[in-house]
């Protein structure tokens, strides 16, 4: 039951002062709260033996009020300390998760669905916060308050009556521990189903245009209804098991009270107890209902917290497939790939085979080939997104495996095929490449990306919101914003991964010319299906099934009578190639 606390031991050590003070104050309130019933018993006994005077009554009332005020103040302080601590834990765990998400390679996101990661970042973290807040409160309060009450009953009333009244408690403990184990299992299942639902919602929202185009709204609604019903059933299974705690606790406490009152009446008749003592004992028994009931709450919270911690730690403990190293900045930007062979972790085939490329600083490399030929895979090897396979990838005299991700990627301006934009303004998306960019730098990047005319036509210009993932603008505009975002970095190495596919040939030609003029002396890598985009390249490689089947300049490849020439002729006939 307390595995969750062991897993959070690092946090409690870090915040030991906060929790020590909170628990100490809680213990004080526990002793203060058992005082009023004792005072009631004393008053009744004094009334019975006619020894209660006005002065004594006033003294008791003043002391009673003092205890209530002090208890209220101390309760406020320890609750503030404990619950603010749980908020700190949730913040730390959320930061750790975010840091993990940002540092992991693509293989991590291939194994983990977005919906499940969202569930861990919301529901599971909330449950962990409850464990460090309400869980610790319930644990300390239920155990210490119960111990305080029982000790008070033994000392101030009767040890015989106390032991008799506590006979049913072991049964309660056994039943609640068994319920806790079942809650843990069902809660794990319910959280997984919640993650599945999150993932389904994300896919539906992202693919809403496709859904409408194929008139699948009704089908998706039915599927979602089935899924949400399933999620509700899973959570209801947890709540059904949780619902057993209260009636079991009520039955056991009722049995305890019946024993206490019955045996207490017998002790009063035999003269071993006073009536005031029995009344005080009855009040104490009623006060025991909360700690006994809270044991069930405690088990429930701890089991849910343990399940959530397992899920979150499962993510936090995942190992990065691409090991990072501490290394100085790369001194040279020459790129050498020698006999590179690579397969994706989940692939059963060879994705790159015997790739050899020698690209000097300041040169442009064009990578062409049919769809699925390995162009993007080659780029991902340069970006160090996956573990390198056989062979060598060198940046100057430094092996890429000896280069840190940060120093490598700080050299690179990368425009991917997806052209991911954030739900912000165009200006903010461009400045993502360089936070402290000036207006002049932004305008230069827009000009180089041939986006000036589009900016003038947009209603709010640079302040136009692009919508989630750029849904409010065209594909060509997304690509050019992404190019501007990369160019504003003024990177040593610029990689355009099929980043001009959504623009017309005239716009593509202008962007390529701008890049040629602006990036003299800097390295550029372009993958494309439209050969006009790499005509100017110093080196062009043709990929096929992960291998380089042709290599050379544009003119050299036209004399090879291979794939490049045939594709060039085909595109020229279709009017795709712009001479």
From TrEMBL:
SMART domains: AAA. InterPro entries: AAA+_ATPase (IPR003593), ABC1_TM_dom (IPR011527), ABC1_TM_sf (IPR036640), ABC_transporter-like_ATP-bd (IPR003439), ABC_transporter-like_CS (IPR017871), P-loop_NTPase (IPR027417), Type_1_exporter (IPR039421). It is found in: Cell membrane. It is a multi-pass membrane protein. The chain crosses the membrane at residues 56-78, 134-155, 161-179, 244-268, 274-301. May be involved in multidrug export. Transmembrane domains (TMD) form a pore in the cell membrane and the ATP-binding domain (NBD) is responsible for energy generation. This is ABC transporter ATP-binding protein/permease. It comes from Mammaliicoccus stepanovicii. The lineage of its organism: Bacteria, Bacillati, Bacillota, Bacilli, Bacillales.
């Amino acid at each position: 039951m307390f595995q969750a606390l062991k897993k959070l031991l690092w946090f409690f050590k870090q915040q030991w002062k906060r929790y020590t003070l909170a628990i100490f104050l809680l213990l004080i309130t526990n002793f203060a709260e058992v005082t009023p019933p004792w005072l009631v018993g004393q008053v009744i006994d004094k009334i019975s033996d006619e020894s209660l005077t006005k002065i004594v009554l006033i003294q008791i009332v003043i002391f009673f009020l003092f205890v209530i005020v002090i208890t209220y103040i101390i309760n406020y302080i320890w609750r503030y300390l404990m619950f603010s601590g749980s908020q700190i834990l949730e913040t730390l765990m959320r930061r750790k998760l975010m840091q993990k998400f940002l540092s992991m390679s693509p293989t991590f996101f291939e194994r983990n669905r977005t919906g499940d990661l969202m569930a861990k970042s919301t529901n599971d973290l909330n449950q962990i916060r409850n464990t460090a807040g309400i869980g610790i409160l319930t644990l300390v309060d239920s155990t210490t308050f119960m111990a305080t009450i029982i000790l008070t009953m033994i000392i101030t009333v009767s040890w015989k009556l106390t032991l008799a009244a506590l006979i049913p408690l072991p049964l309660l403990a056994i039943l609640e521990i068994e319920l806790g184990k079942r809650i843990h299992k069902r809660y794990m299942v319910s959280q997984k189903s919640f993650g599945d639902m999150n993932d389904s919602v994300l896919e539906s929202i992202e693919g809403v245009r496709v859904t409408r185009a194929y008139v699948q709204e009704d089908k998706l609604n039915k599927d979602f209804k089935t899924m949400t019903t399933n999620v509700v059933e899973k959570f209801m299974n947890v709540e059904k098991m949780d619902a057993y705690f209260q009636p079991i606790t009520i039955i056991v406490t009722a049995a305890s009270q019946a024993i206490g009152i019955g045996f207490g009446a017998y002790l009063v008749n035999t003269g071993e107890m006073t009536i005031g003592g029995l009344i005080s004992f009855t009040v104490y028994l009623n006060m025991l209902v909360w700690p006994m009931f809270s044991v069930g709450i405690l088990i429930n919270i701890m089991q849910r917290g343990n399940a959530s911690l397992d899920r979150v730690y499962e993510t936090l403990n995942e190992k990065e497939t691409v090991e990072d190293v501490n290394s100085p900045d790369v001194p040279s930007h020459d790129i050498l790939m020698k006999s590179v062979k690579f397969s994706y972790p989940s692939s059963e085939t060879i994705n790159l085979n015997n790739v050899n490329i020698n690209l000097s600083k300041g040169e442009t490399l064009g990578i062409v080939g049919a769809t699925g030929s390995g162009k993007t895979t080659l780029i991902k090897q340069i970006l160090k997104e996956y573990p390198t396979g056989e062979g060598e990838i060198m940046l100057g005299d430094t092996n890429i495996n000896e280069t840190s991700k940060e120093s490598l990627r700080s050299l690179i301006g990368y425009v991917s095929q997806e052209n991911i934009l954030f739900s912000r303004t165009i200006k903010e998306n461009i400045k993502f490449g360089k936070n402290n960019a000036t207006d002049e730098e932004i305008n230069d990047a827009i000009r180089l990306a041939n986006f000036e005319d589009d900016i003038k036509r947009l209603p709010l210009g640079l302040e136009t919101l692009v919508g989630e993932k750029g849904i409010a603008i065209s594909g060509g505009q997304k690509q050019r914003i992404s190019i501007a975002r990369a160019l504003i970095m003024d990177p040593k190495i610029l990689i355009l991964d099929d980043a001009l596919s959504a623009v017309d040939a005239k716009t593509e030609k202008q962007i390529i010319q701008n890049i040629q003029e602006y990036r003299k002396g800097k390295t550029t890598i372009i993958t494309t299906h439209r050969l006009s985009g790499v005509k100017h390249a110093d080196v062009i490689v043709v990929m096929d099934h992960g291998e380089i089947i042709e290599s050379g300049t544009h003119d050299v490849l036209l004399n090879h009578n291979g794939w490049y020439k045939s594709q060039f002729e085909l595109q020229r006939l279709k009017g795709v190639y712009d001479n």
